[in-house]
Model the fold of this input.
Amino acid sequence: MNTKITEPIKNIFSAQKAPIAMLLIFITMLFFKTPFYTRYNLIDLINSNSTLLIVAMGFTVVLVAGGVDLSVGGVMTVSGIIAIKLINSGVSIPVAVLVSILFGAAIGAINGYLTVYQNTEPFIITLGMGVLLTGVAQELTTARPISGENPAFQNLANYKLFGVVPALVLVMIVTVIVVVWLLRSTSFGRNCYAIGGDYEVAKYSGINVLPTKTLTFVISGVTAAIAGVMLSSWVNSGNSTYGDQTALYIASAVVVGGTSFAGGIGGAFKSLLGVMFIGILSNAFNMLNIDSYIQQLLVGLFIVGIIWLDCYARKVKRETV
Amino acid sequence: MNKFKLLSILMLIAVMLSACGGGAAATEAPAEGGNNTLVFIPGSASNPSQAFGFKMFQKHAAEYNFDVSMLDGKADVAEQTKAINNAVAQGADVIIVNPNDALAIVPAMKAAQEAGVVVGIFMAAAAPGDSTFFVAVDDKQAGGVVVQGILDLFPDGATGVEIGGQAGHPAAIDRHDGFTTALADHPEIKVLDYQNPQQWDAAMAQAIAEDMVTKYGDEIQFVFCHWDNGATGVINALKAAGMEDVLVFGVDGNAVAFEQVQSWKNYNSIGQNVETIAMKSMEIANLFLAKDASAKFDNIVPFDLITKDTFGNFTPPEW
Amino acid sequence: MNKKITTQSIIAFARNNLIILGIFILAIITSFVEPNFLTVGNLQNIMRQFGPLIMLSLGMTFIIMGGFIDLSVGGIISLVAVVTVSLIDPIGQVAALMVGVVIGLICGLLNSFLIIKGGAFKQSEALFLTYGMSVVFTAVALIYTAAAPVFLTYSKTDYSIFTAIGERFVGPVSVSFIIFLVCLLILYIIESRTHIGRSICLTGGNMTAARLAGIPTEKTIVFIYAVSGIMAAIGAVVLASRVTIASPIMGKGYETQAILAVVVGGTALLGGKGSVLRTVIGTLLIIMMSNCLNLLGVTTYIQYMLRGAILILAIWLDNRKQYSEGN
Amino acid sequence: MDKNHSDPILEIKEVSKAFPGVKALDRVSLEVFRGTIHGIVGENGAGKSTLMKILSGVYQKDSGEIFFDGNKIEDITPVQSMKMGLSIIYQELNLVNTMTVGENVFLGRFSEMGGRKEVHAKARVLLDSIGCKIDTEKEVSELSVSDKQMIEIAKALSFDSKLIIMDEPSSSLTADEMQELIKIIHDLKNKGISIIYITHKLDEIFNFCDVVTVMRDGHVIATRNIDAISRNEMISMMVGRTIENEYPPRPNSVGEMILEVEDINTKLLKNVHFNLKKGEILGFVGLVGSGRTETVRALFGADKVKKKSIKVDGKFVNINNPIDAIKNGLAMVPEDRKIQGLLLQFSVDKNISLASLGELTYYGFINEKKERDISERQIKALNVKTPSGKTRIQLLSGGNQQKAILGRWLELKPKILVLDEPTKGIDVGAKYEIYLLMKKIVEEGGSIILISSELPEVLNMSNRVITICNGRITGEFDPLLASADEIMAKAFEF
Done:
C-alpha cells in the first residue's frame, strides 16, 4: 500500500532533481520578505538568463548527439564583437548580425570537421578552440571594450514588446521552441538521439552520422553566435572578457538539468530547467543578501550535490539488478 | 515524462501567481530604521581591493545612515548586469558599482537611474549620464605620476617596460592610456615593451617580467606594473636577475605596496585610498538623495604617492 | 633505395615525435630572432616557469590514465597557496608546507570519496563532480582570507626555506626543478614498475574487467586522486614560493592548462594509455611556447590565438598518427 | 516449393573480399531461393559475417557480382539494401537503447513515417503482426533480449523485406523464446519471405532450415539440401577435419565437498543454495535473467547482496569483492568477454597476468620477468594462437581471447572455477579445446561451475545440473539419468 504512494514520489525525486529543487526555492522564498516575487524581478530573472539559455540550447543539441562544445564562450565573445564592429563601420544591422551568425556557424563547422570527420576528442579540441577565440577577441578589440554607436542595435535585445516583454526574451523563447521542436519532432533531432545513444547502430541504420553530428556543432556555433550578438546588443558593447566563464557554467547547468554527457539522453526543455535553476538559485541568494563567498560555496555544493545524487541513483539502480 | 510535464506546469503556475501578486518594478521600499539602503556591486567579490572596499562601506555605513549589502559581479558583464537589476528589484536607494566593463553595464545603470536609484561608480571613471556620479582616483593621472617619478630618478630619461592589468579591464585601460599620453611629452623616456596578462594574476605578471628581463636585460631601468600584487612578481623576476636597481612602479597602495616600498630599493606605489573613496561615495550619494544642488557628477580623490620618503605618513590598509 | 629508406625513417620519426619536433623548431626560430633565448638566464627562467604547471600535470596524468578527470586542481591550488602562506608566520615554514600538502591530500581524498560513494565512474560524471568541488575549494579559500591576498613580510619573518623552492638554484638547476625531477622519478617508477601503476592503466583500460580480475579499482581511484591532490598542493607551494604572494583565485585556469599539457603530450583522454614522460614534453611545449612568443615580442592576444591553434594542431596531428597506426 | 527453387532471390557470384593481410572471401558463390530458410554455418573467421556485411553494404566487395531480386547490386549503402528488401538482424543487436521501441523500428526514417504519432502507430501494427505486445513508448534499455529480437524482426518487416538475414539470433534466446522465433520464421516463410539463418548451433540447422551452406576460411565448401547431409559430415566440412565427438568423455573424478552456498539473497535471488564437490563440474541451467549469472556474480563478490553465507573447504568465508573471492580460491570467466573480461587495448601478456598481478608483486613492484614467464607458460599450455605475447589481444580471434582469459585464471590454480558462457561465439574447434581443458582441470582436482545457454553443452559436460528460475533453485539432476525435457520443465517452473 505504502510503496504505491512512495514509489512515484521516489521516482520524481530520483529523476527530476532540477525542477524539484527549483520548486523548493520557490516555496522557500515565500517565507522570506524579499522582492523575489515581484514582476520586475521575475521578468529580469528570465531576461538576464536569456543569453545563457540561448547558448544552452545549441549546447544541448551537441550533447544529445554525443559531442561537447566548450568553445561556446569564445564564439559568443567574438561574434558579439564582430557585430558591433561591423555596425560601427556602417554595415546595416541585419547584415552584421548575419555575418556574426555565419561566423558562429563556421566555427561550429570547423569544430565539427575536426571532431567528427577527423575523429578527435571534442572536449579537448573545443577547449583549444575556446583559447584561440579568446585571442581573436582580444586582437579584434585590443582588449578594450568597444561601444555600439548605432542606437538601433540596442533595440535588438532591449526593445520591449507590448511595453513588457523584452525582445531578448522573445529571441530566447523562439530559440527554445525551435530547438525543442528540432530535437523532438524532426528526423534530424531524432537522428541526433540515435547517434548519441549508439553511434554504430545509427550508422548501420542508414543515418548520415557524419553530416548530422557535424551539424550539431554548427547549431551550437549558431546559437552561441546569436547569444553573443544579443548580449552585445543588450549591453551595447563588445569586449573580449564576455563569455569567459560561459562554457563550464552552461555545461554544469545543462547536466544538472538532466541531459547526459554520455549522449542520447536529455532534451532542450531539461536544459532550460537546468539553466533556470542555477539562475534562480543565485537570484534567490542575492535577494536574501547572502554573503557572496558563501553563495559561491553553496552553488558549488548544489552542483556537487545534484550531480552526486544523480550518480548515486544510477549506482543504486545498477547494483540492485 | 508526464510527471515532468506536471512539474513544469506547476512551476509555471507558481511563477504566474507570483508575477501577478507582485507589484511593479522597484517599489520604493520604506527604509528600515530610517536608513537608506546601499548595494555595493564590485566587479568581482574575489578582487581584494573590492572586498576591502565593501569592508569600508560597512565600517562607515552608520556614519552616513546607510544599510549596506553586496552583490557579486562575478567578473562577468552579464552577471554584473544581473546584479544591478537584482539591486533595483531589492529596492535599493543607492547602487555603487565597480565596473567589469565601463560600457557594458551602461544600459543597466541607465535603467536603474530611470527607476529612481542613485547610481555611483566606484574606483573608475564614467561618462556623464551613464551613472549619477563617480568617485575615483584619476587612473589616467596615474600615468603622469609614473612619468614624473621616472624623471625624478633619471633626469636624462630612461628605458623600461610596462606590464598592464587584466586585459580589457577599465582601470588597466585608463592607466595605460594615461601613461601613453604623459609619455608623448617626454621622448627621453622609452617604453620597450607592453604586455597585458589575462587576469590580475601575479604569476602571469612575473612570467611576463621574467621574459622581458631576458630579452632586454639591463636596458630595463624602470617597470610600470598596473597593480602592486603584480609588481611583487616583477620584483621577484628582477631579484632573480640581480637587477636590484630597477625602479618599480605599482598602483593601489595596499599592504603589499607598503612592504615593497620598504624592501625594494626603488619602489613607488600610486595609492588609491579605498577607505576615502568609499566614504566619499556615501557622502556624494547622500547629497544626491537629498537632491542637493552642490552634488557633482565627477569626484576625483587624489592619489597617495607612497615612496620611501612618504610611507610613514600613511597607515597601511588591511588588504 | 637507401636514400628512400632514410627519408621514410625521418618522416616516421617526425610523425612519432611531433611535439618534440615542434619544440625544437620553436626553439630554433626563437634563438635566431632573439639571441637571448639561449642564455643560461633564460633557460633558468624556463626551468622556473615550468615548475608549477608540471606538478599538476604529472598528477593529472595519473588521473587521465585511470580514465578519470580532475577539474578541482585549480581550487586546490588556491586553497593550499593561501593557507600555506598564511601559516608561515604562526607555525613556521616547514610545518606550513606540510600542512599545505596535507590539505591537498585531503581535497584529493574528498574527491575520491565522492566519486566512489556516488559511483561516478564515468569520466563525465567525475568531470562535473570535480568542477563543483573546485568551486567549493575556491569559495573556502575566499572565505578563509576574505578575498585579500596573502604575502610575505620579509621584514618580520625568515622565509629562506619557503622562497628557496621558487628562487634558489643548486648549481645551474633550480630547486623547483629538482623537486620536479624527484616527483617525476617517483611517479615514473610507480607508473612503470609497480602494482598500483599497472592498476591505474588497467582501470583506465576497462574498469569492469579489471575489477572482476581482482584489481583493487576503488583503491586505485583513491590513489590517483590523492596523488593529484598532493601534486596540486606541491604545485601550489612552488607557485606561491615563486610569486611570493597568494590570492584565493590564483589557481583559476590551471586545470585546463594541465589537461591540455597531458593530452598534448599524447596521453589518451579516454584512459588506459599514457605516461608521465609524455606529459613532461607536453608541458614543456606549453611553457616554451609562452616563453618564446614573449621573447619574440608577440602580444599576449596573438599568443592566445597561436596557443589555441597549436594545441588544436598538435592534437589533430597526433590523432591522425594514431589513426593511421590503428589501420 | 519446387517452383520457388528455380527462382533465386539472391545470387552471389564469385565474390571476393580482401582485408590487409587476410583474404576474407575467396570467390564465393551462393544462391538463395525464394521462400526458403537457408542456413549458413561455419567457424568464426569463415567469412559469414563479411559476406553479410557486403550484402548489406557495410563493406564493398573487391570483385564478383551480386544479384538481388533480379537486380544487380553495386556499391550499395545499408539503407539502400534495406529499402530494396534485404534486411539484416545482426548478432550484436542493432538498437539504440536510449530510444523508444517505436522509434527504433523506424530508426532514421522519422520524417518518412510522418512524425512521432505515426511512428508509434505504425510500429504497433507491425509488432501486432508478429504477436508482440510490447508498448511502443517503452525505452529499449528496459527490454529483455528476446523482446529486442522481436523489435529487430519488426524493423526488418517494416522495410517489406524479401530476404531477412539473421546472424546468430538464438545466441541469447531461451528455449521458449526460440520456439517463438521458429514460429515467426515459419510465418515469414509462408509469406514468401526468404531467410538466411546464420548459426553455430547445428541443431537449429536440422530443425528448421531447408538448405544449408557450409563455409570455411573464406570459401563455400558446400551447399546441400538439409536431408542430404549428416551432422558429422557438416562438422567435418566446417572444421576441415573429422571430429569424432562434439564433447569429450565426461570427466568422473568427484571427491569431497569444497563449496557450500546458503541463502544468497538479492532483489532477484531468493535463498539460493547449492554445493560443489572437488573434481566436479556443476552445470547451471536457466534462462537469461533467471538468476544463474547473478548467483555466480554474488558468489564471486562482483555484486552487492543483501545476505549470503558461503563455506569453502568447510570454513565460512567472507566475500565482499572479487579480491576476497580470489583469495579464497575462486575464479570467474565472466559472461561478456569484451566488456567484462578483456582489456582490449592491452597486450596478451598483460591480459593473462592480470589476476596473478598480486603474486607477482614484491613490495609494490611488479616482477616483469616472472610476468612474461607466466604469460608464455599459459600461451603454450593453452595453445593460444598469437604472434607474440606483446600483441594486442583485440587482434586475436574470439576463441584465442577466451583461452587467454582462461589462462589468466588457471595460473592461480583456483579451487573453484566459474565459467559463464565460456563457449559463446566461439567456433567448434576452439570449443572442443575448451572442453578438453575443463576436463583436465577437474581431473587435476579443480571444480567447475558451468553456465551455458546451450543445453547440450551443460548436459554433456556436467556431473550434476541445477536448474534455476526466477531467482530460485528449482531442481537438481544427474544429467545421465534425467532427460532434457525433464530438466527444461524445471528451468521453466516459475
